[in-house]
Design brief:
- By secondary structure, this protein is an alpha+beta fold.
- The chain has four domains: about 100 residues, GIY-YIG endonuclease (3-Layer(aba) Sandwich); about 70 residues, Orthogonal Bundle (Arc Repressor Mutant, subunit A); about 70 residues, no CATH class; about 60 residues, no CATH class.
- The protein is about 40% helix and about 15% strand.
- The strands form three sheets. A five-stranded antiparallel β-sheet has the order 2-1-4-3-5.
- Helix 2 packs across helix 3, helix 8 crosses helix 9 and helix 11 crosses helix 12.
- The chain starts with a helix and ends with a helix.
Length: about 375
């Protein structure tokens, strides 16, 4: 007996060391992470930051985020549950972000699951739902349970349904465990579909068609506009705004800007679009419009500002720090913008515009 025990024990230790486990974060107000065993076929794919489907409690399944992958067997008498499915081929969350989540939970004394629920930007992930795809080639090797057959019957006429759609069609309160058992049989596959709450802002722009990109063709177009003076006016306004005939100066013109500057209606523009002289296209634009800073000369200093500027210059000859005191709107910015200009001129002898640089002084004043 003693010899057999010595023979079996190393074998058991070998199996234990080869099994991998994953600590996951659940979207619940829980203090700690929870450990699940990783199926053999998913060991190479499950990495920190990936999303997985796990069974938690008696009847609930959740989408969890893997926090750590290790080979430490949980010190418990309960059976460790397996990860049911992997939703991502690559991590959706980087390690620095995971560490930041832990810091937030520690600093604000909240649960890691609470951080998980609110940390992702709402514009990128308002809500997610597990999507279930039916395997048309599935053939059952044995009798299915009534709930399993009910779920498969819901796929008649469609191949893909979300969990909520399955629950509505089948009447089952929690269909995820049934889906999990069908996954094990190979009847369905699971993926994660994101419902994007963020909708990019699109804007219509107008451009000159390639057919009329030469002066000769434009002259022919203007000749056709003898009786369509408003279309002629709109085309002239577009050429003036876009500089379409000068590739070096060409800029994009939005439909809104063109109609506002020309004073014409969209019906007039539609006429030019139908003629093929102009073309419209959609483009994504940012919601945060950053104004362009134009170059402008520095303002002249007043006598009081000149005195303060001279004192600052004298102070810097002997000290590294100088305190400029003044009430709000007294003109302090105008004073210290001048030393900045002197410093920039020392490093950039050329003008910022000639060097291809935005003028930092004017940008700062803006």
């Amino acid at each position: 007996m003693r010899g057999r025990a010595l023979t079996v024990r190393p074998f058991l230790l070998l199996l234990t060391s080869e099994m991998k486990y994953a600590d996951v974060i659940l979207p619940l107000p829980l203090e700690n992470s929870y450990t699940y065993s990783i199926p053999t076929d998913l060991e190479a794919a499950v990495t920190p930051g990936c999303r997985v489907i796990v069974h938690f409690g008696k009847k609930r399944y959740y989408t969890a985020i893997v926090m750590e992958v290790h080979e430490r067997r949980p010190n418990t008498d309960f059976e460790t549950k397996e990860i049911y499915a992997l939703l991502d081929a690559s991590p959706v969350l980087r390690r620095p972000q995971l560490r930041f989540w832990k810091w937030i939970a520690s600093y604000y004394m909240c649960k890691l699951g609470d951080v998980y629920k609110v940390a992702l930007p709402s514009g990128l992930k308002l809500e997610s739902e597990t999507a279930v795809t039916y395997n048309a080639d599935f053939e059952a090797d044995g009798p299915l349970r009534p709930n399993e057959q009910t779920v498969l019957d819901a796929f008649k006429g469609v191949l893909k349904l979300t969990v909520s759609e399955l629950e509505k069609k089948t009447g089952l309160r929690n269909v995820v465990p049934v889906v999990a058992s069908l996954m094990a049989r190979g009847a369905v596959e699971v993926s994660e579909e994101m419902k994007r709450g963020f909708v990019p802002k699109m804007q219509t722009f107008i451009r000159l068609s390639q057919e009329y990109a030469t002066e000769e063709r434009l002259q022919e177009a203007f000749a056709d506009f003898k009786r369509a003076k408003k279309q002629e006016l709109l085309l002239v306004c577009f050429l003036d705004l876009s500089h379409a005939l000068n590739p070096a100066l060409t800029v994009e013109v939005s439909k809104k800007e063109l109609l506002e500057r020309s004073g014409c209606s969209s019906t007039i523009l539609d006429g030019l679009l139908k003629r093929g002289v102009l073309e419209s296209y959609e483009k994504e634009v940012g919601r945060l419009q950053v104004p362009v800073c134009r170059l402008q000369p520095l303002s002249s200093l007043s006598p009081a500002q000149e005195k303060a500027y001279s004192e600052i210059h004298d102070t810097f000859t002997s000290k590294d720090v100088c305190l400029l005191h003044g009430v709000t709107s007294s003109g302090k910015t105008e004073i210290y913008v001048h030393p900045i200009q002197v410093l920039l001129s020392a490093f950039f002898p050329q003008q910022p515009e000639a060097a291809g640089l935005q003028d930092p002084v004017s940008s700062y004043k803006k």
